TrEMBL record:
<feature type="domain" description="Methyltransferase">
    <location>
        <begin position="50"/>
        <end position="145"/>
    </location>
</feature>
<dbReference type="InterPro" id="IPR029063">
    <property type="entry name" value="SAM-dependent_MTases_sf"/>
</dbReference>
<dbReference type="GO" id="GO:0061542">
    <property type="term" value="F:3-demethylubiquinol 3-O-methyltransferase activity"/>
</dbReference>
<keyword id="KW-0949">S-adenosyl-L-methionine</keyword>
<dbReference type="InterPro" id="IPR041698">
    <property type="entry name" value="Methyltransf_25"/>
</dbReference>
<keyword id="KW-0808">Transferase</keyword>
<dbReference type="GO" id="GO:0032259">
    <property type="term" value="P:methylation"/>
</dbReference>
<dbReference type="GO" id="GO:0102208">
    <property type="term" value="F:2-polyprenyl-6-hydroxyphenol methylase activity"/>
</dbReference>
<keyword id="KW-0489">Methyltransferase</keyword>
<dbReference type="Pfam" id="PF13649">
    <property type="entry name" value="Methyltransf_25"/>
</dbReference>
<protein>
    <submittedName>
        <fullName>Class I SAM-dependent methyltransferase</fullName>
        <ecNumber>2.1.1.222</ecNumber>
        <ecNumber>2.1.1.64</ecNumber>
    </submittedName>
</protein>
Length: 217
């Protein structure tokens, strides 16, 4: 789920919207892993990972290259097929399972040593749905495992007219929405600002939050 384009018409499904989004472009994302995930998970021992909103596969391919067994989930089959091709070209296709799920209604089964949710902001989501997805993400973390959530704090600084209305959660709201008990340890709870140039090369920055939690029991 991403937030860099106009809101969809009300009469098409989430899957149709994102399939069209990816089908209209040969490449949407850079192919590089999200820096937040690299920073927080780069030193973790490889195990099983769940990548939520896997897009064109940058994060899943990076994790697989480190030795993780990855279940990569996206609502768009177009994105999943493209990502599978990238993974095969990178020589890690056998370490990744690609699965189509609309996380608003359908969540993958199982427990994982790492669950990654990078920028799950969807203009198709109803109020409270993101919190519900992240709570299910926390429930999928095995004891001793990690949950890494990256969230935008607002639109890029160069954007004068946002393409649609969206309320970005604060770090505190992300934590409150998870409603976790004391069986979790906060590893990282940070606000960061990064370079975020515009599509025409405009200079700009964007603020994000990082929440890395470890499940103790």
């Amino acid at each position: 789920m991403h937030d860099h384009h106009a809101a969809p018409p009300a009469d098409i499904s989430t899957r149709e919207h994102w399939d069209t989004f990816y089908r209209d472009r040969d490449q949407v994302w850079s192919g590089n892993p999200n820096p937040i995930l690299v920073r927080e998970a780069g030193a973790l021992p490889p195990g099983t990972a769940l990548d939520l909103g896997s897009g064109e596969g940058g994060d899943a391919i990076w994790l697989a290259g480190l030795g993780w067994r990855v279940t990569a989930v996206d609502v768009s089959q177009v994105a999943l097929d493209r990502a599978a091709g990238h993974a095969a070209a990178a020589g890690v296709g056998d370490r990744i399972t690609w699965a189509a799920h609309d996380l608003h209604t359908d969540f993958p089964a199982g427990e994982f040593d790492l669950v990654s949710a990078q920028f799950l902001h969807s203009q198709t989501a109803q109020p409270g749905e993101r919190d519900a997805i992240l709570r299910r993400a926390a429930g999928a973390v095995a004891v001793g495992g990690a949950l890494v959530i990256g969230s935008h704090q607002g639109w890029p600084s160069w954007m004068d007219e946002p393409p649609f209305a969206h309320e970005f959660p604060t770090l505190e709201q992300v934590q409150q929405g998870l409603a976790l008990d004391d069986g979790w340890q906060v590893v990282t709870a940070d606000l960061i600002e990064r370079d975020a140039p515009g599509p025409e090369g405009q200079p700009g920055t964007r603020a994000d939050s990082v929440l890395h939690l470890r499940r103790l029991r």
